[in-house]
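Re-run requested by the PI after the first attempt was lost when the workstation crashed. Everything re-entered from the original request form. Ligand of interest: flavin mononucleotide.
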Amino acid sequence: MTILHVDSSINGENSVSRIISRSIIERLQAQEPAATVVRRDLVAQSLPHLTFEAFADSTILDEFLAADTVVVGAPMYNFGIPSHLKAWIDRLAVAGKTFRYTGNGAEGLAGGKKLIIASSRGGVFAPGTPSAAFDHQENYLRAFFGFLGITDITFVRAEGVAMGPEAREKAIAAARSEVTMLAA
Ligand SMILES: Cc1cc2nc3c(=O)[nH]c(=O)nc-3n(C[C@H](O)[C@H](O)[C@H](O)COP(=O)(O)O)c2cc1C
């Protein structure tokens, strides 16, 4: 079993999404001790904006395709995702490899993977809340990976983390407790 561990927060050790993604990896490793974990830190080693030439290098795509489980630390930045993460995503949608168009529309070709997203955000955007329509982070990630054919998507969310230290700790504790329910 291969697990790909991706992070995209610029906040280093203070990053909530990094705290959560790390605890997800620890949980998966506890369940699957023989699993290989591949690390992709998109801030320590950031990818340049996509160019047409970059499509010729399939390193990122191959690493993604080789993983059985993908864990992505994804903070909300300006209602969307960090540009570091977008540069990675831009290398995953490749016609004929991860999706194709048929007479019936688009078809995802990268199904069969498990995707776990460690989502962090300063405010509250959960479904049913007043700002839910501003969530272009989780909704975008669900749409994108769904387009690639991935149906097994779990969000472990810590939100409201900018609403005071107590709210932050509460949100992290709630996310950690969700992690204890995850199955490899
Ligand atoms: C550049 C930047 C943009 C942000 N934009 C938003 C935003 O649009 N909405 C929000 O609720 N929080 C926003 N935040 C707060 C982060 O979502 C929050 O601090 C979260 O914990 C970041 O994840 P991290 O701790 O893993 O870095 C932003 C933070 C940064 C650094």
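Saved to the shared folder this time. The longest strand covers residues 114-121.
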